[in-house]
Amino acid sequence: MPLDRVIIRRCTESDYNAIGEIINDAAQVYRGIIPDDRWHEPYMSEEELRHEIDDGVEFWGYDADGRLLGVMGIQDKGDVDLMRHAYVRTLNRNQGIGTHLLHYLEGLTEKPILIGTWLDAVWAIRFYRKNGYRPLSRRETETLLRKYWTIPERQVETSIVLADRKWQTLEKTVPGTAPHDD
User: Fold this and answer.
1) Radius of gyration (C-alpha) of the chain in whole angstroms
2) Mean pLDDT value across the chain
């Protein structure tokens, strides 16, 4: 059944439960893939989601006929923006929703964009590469995760950062992030 009305819109407080539901549904794909010590149920608790929003993650949603099918956050970190928590409902995957959200959010900023994901989430890395992002070196990844994200050291060890083309012009100004400095 075709969708009549599809929009990408900024999420509001009334979307809070749907955001958590989408994240926790879609994150099931990580079970058994990411390190066992980083997996928990729910994947993102209400408290963690509230903390992310309070920390400046602005969620946008792919709304089809009044129902959110996917979400993605953008977080201003001064000289860069981070794409955070990109999830599409399991039943709605592989329909271009993530790509639509990513391109829309890219259009909201002139800043370089960084994206962090799990090293073993090969499908996510493939998705971002297909959309023009390049994986950064191990050294760059660790430096940037510590600079721009607030995550446990174990997550730093098991994650990767990907960057858009605009990052290449900025990376020379961030100590320890010159290309090929592994």
Assistant:
1) 16
2) 92
Distance CA 25, CA 23 (A): 6
H helical segments located in the chain: 16-26, 46-54, 97-106, 122-130, 138-148, 153-157, 167-170
Q: Which residue has the higher pLDDT, 2 or 118?
A: 118
pTM comes to 0.90
With respect to residue 180, please indicate whether it lies within any of the assigned structural domains: no
pLDDT of 181 reads 43
In a domain, 45, yes or no: yes
Domain of residue 44 covers 6-173
Identify the CA nearest to 8 among candidates 86, 68, 88, 90. Answer: 68
Q: Is residue 181 part of a domain?
A: no
Specify the CATH number for the domain of residue 141: 3.40.630.30
Own/partner contacts of 20-27, CB < 8 Å, gap of 24 or more, are 20/44, 20/46, 20/49, 22/68, 22/69, 22/70, 22/71, 22/87, 22/88, 22/89, 23/49, 23/71, 23/85, 23/87, 25/87, 25/89, 25/90, 26/87, 26/88, 26/89, 26/90, 26/93, 27/87
